[in-house]
Amino acid sequence: MRRLTKKKALTLMKELDAFPKVPESYVESTTSGGTVSLIAFTFMAVLALLEFFVYRHTWMKYEYEVDRDFSSKLRINVDITVAMRCQYIGADVLDLAETMVASDGLQYEPVNFELPPQQRIWHMTLLHIQERLRVEHALQDVIFKAAIKGAPPAQTKSEDSTASLSACRIHGHLYVNKVAGNFHITVGKSIPHPRGHAHLAALVSHDSYNFSHRIDHLSFGEPLPGMISPLDGTEKIAIDSNHMFQYFITIVPTKLNTYKVSADTHQYSVTERERVINHAAGSHGVSGIFMKYDISSLMVKVTEQHMPLWQFLVRLCGIIGGIFSTTGMIHGLVGFLVDVVCCRFQMGIYKPKDDLPAQENSETQLPAENYTE
């Protein structure tokens, strides 16, 4: 009984076979078929290799949502060199509520404004990257993954005496409220004031004003290695002592989630304006560097995505099956056309038996007297 049941099961499975086997005696191998097979296998291998590279590639997905975090502090990372002595200038932040933020996290370091050769090469490379980013926005994906592998060369302290150093490097970070504000560098050290703040500029000679500057780095949020901000590498030369430089910055909170980095940072866009203040002509303003920033209410979520394994396998099966079927059809069509063009296609062979001549049918019939009794 068990053998009978097993035999029926095997018979049923045999009837369900969707891949029937053809005896080798019914198969004919041709040179053209071998050539087409070789071409098909080559295409399969090439496309499968390219598909594997696509599978290894990742891409960035951008999503937008409302930023509901209003209580946290915003970090400002600063590294700016100004062509004035450190005792003549001061940097601080004044937010929209006229609240002065202490600049205790900033350090003032006397330096030379001109860069050493190694740092100048790095600066020129950074400017070249910024130029390409303005043209090809897709490079921002590369920046998010890791634009610059190594860190910039460290600024070595000059062997000259402090008195001979005519520039000041302001670097460090400070925390501000997540509201619009104004980070500025101007003449004189800042002091708190009941109605805001003031700078002690009376003791500084007007002839010593020179707000030529170089922004080595300016970013918002937690610093990430390899990230390039829009103002990094910016260098401006003041043509007059009454020169004012203004940067209008729009900050966008960004939640970055890649295979290498997962952090909350802030990207920003910037527009620039500079002018010479002429008090005799009625111009208003103060010489210095002013960075007015505002924070967007939208947050961008940047996620690095990878093709799933099942999708890669489906695409791979589609490549192999599609090429195999397509080349088979093309081979049959080309063979048919060759037979027609070479006049070797015999239509009579493919005619049905009902269309054969009547004479041929009569020859195969038996005589009528054979059926008489």
Automatic annotation (TrEMBL):
Major localization class: endoplasmic reticulum
Transmembrane segments: 35-55, 312-338
All residue ranges annotated as the Endoplasmic reticulum vesicle transporter N-terminal domain in the record: 13-98
Sequence ranges assigned to domain Endoplasmic reticulum vesicle transporter C-terminal in this UniProt record: 162-330
Endoplasmic reticulum as UniProt keyword: yes
Record GO biological process: endoplasmic reticulum to Golgi vesicle-mediated transport; retrograde vesicle-mediated transport, Golgi to endoplasmic reticulum
Subcellular location: Endoplasmic reticulum membrane; Endoplasmic reticulum-Golgi intermediate compartment membrane; Golgi apparatus membrane
Entry keyword Transmembrane helix: yes
Family matches, as PANTHER family: ENDOPLASMIC RETICULUM-GOLGI INTERMEDIATE COMPARTMENT PROTEIN, ENDOPLASMIC RETICULUM-GOLGI INTERMEDIATE COMPARTMENT PROTEIN 2
Entry similarity comment: Belongs to the ERGIC family.
Protein name as catalogued: Endoplasmic reticulum-Golgi intermediate compartment protein
Species name: Astatotilapia calliptera (Eastern happy)
